[in-house]
Design a protein that fits this description.
By secondary structure, the chain is an all-alpha fold. 81% of the residues lie in helices and 0% in strands.
Length: 268
């Protein structure tokens, strides 16, 4: 395959050299297009390799490929966004933010840059700014992981105590990613906080069904407490007892178990 590719490129070079003898202008234009195509491919390849290394936690190798990409185009938005991720993971918030902002400035339609920047801002507890980045990203109907964008948007809205907006975002996330356990739990939790126990129970029941179908999914202390609270309010005594027992046995030092004990002592 490689030999065929090299041979094809060699033959193309000979053909272009022949054309050059007869039509310099046309050949120059074709060559320029070829160089631009090669340049764009190199940029894409470098960023893809870097993203793979970031996923593996190999930031040194990722940085090497991103530097190569930025040597070709210092304003390449995907490369700048990925470099922002590296700086964020290395504890360099000023450099991270600078790269995220440059990435968005270079390409206002780079939704992934909005998502990265939003996550960074969330980690910095800058919730209103994080919400704005996720809100912008959520409008991109072609983004491949749009459900997670709405989940992140809901998290920022919940942190800002905007529960109606959070419920709306979480509902949208469950529509886009119907089997995502973290989204079902988040929606059930917020509905419970707003007093809509019936709706909260509906989404919690969906969560339990998904967990029963997958051995790798296990309860967290948070999911158990949400379930216990719902069961108490709906007088589901067997479910409450079962979930409370798991909370005691699996998370004996958790804040959620302490909260459950407070509920019991207050008769709530």
């Amino acid at each position: 395959m490689v030999n065929q590719f090299v041979s094809a490129r060699f033959m193309m070079s000979l053909m272009l050299a022949t054309v050059l003898l007869f039509s310099g202008c046309v050949t120059t234009t074709d060559s320029r297009f070829a160089r631009e195509a090669d340049r764009q491919k190199a940029l894409t390849d470098y960023v893809q390799l870097a993203s793979a290394y970031i996923g593996q936690g190999n930031f040194e190798r990722a940085r090497h490929h991103l530097d190569r990409a930025l040597e070709i185009d210092s304003n390449n938005s995907p490369a700048l966004a990925a470099k922002g991720l590296i700086f964020a993971n290395e504890g360099e918030p000023e450099l991270a933010e600078s790269n995220f902002r440059r990435a968005i400035s270079a390409d206002s339609k780079n939704t992934r840059a909005n998502v990265y920047y939003g996550a960074f801002l969330y980690g910095q507890s800058r919730m209103e700014q994080a919400r704005d980045q996720f809100a912008k990203a959520s409008g991109d109907t072609g983004y491949p992981d749009r459900g997670s964008v709405f989940f992140n948007l809901g998290m920022t809205q919940e942190q800002l105590d905007d529960f109606p907006a959070a419920i709306s975002s979480y509902r949208r996330a469950t529509e886009l990613a119907r089997s995502d356990p973290k989204t079902l739990l988040a929606l059930s939790r917020v509905l419970l906080e707003t007093g809509d126990v019936t709706a909260s129970d509906y989404y919690y029941s969906r969560l339990l069904t998904i967990m029963q179908r997958s051995a790798r999914l296990q309860h967290s202390s948070e999911s158990l407490l949400v379930g216990v609270r719902i069961a108490r309010l709906l007088d589901k005594r067997d479910q409450e007892a079962s979930l409370a027992l798991m909370l005691r046995n699996n998370f004996p030092e958790s804040a959620e178990l302490r909260q459950y004990k407070v509920l019991m002592s207050n008769g709530q």
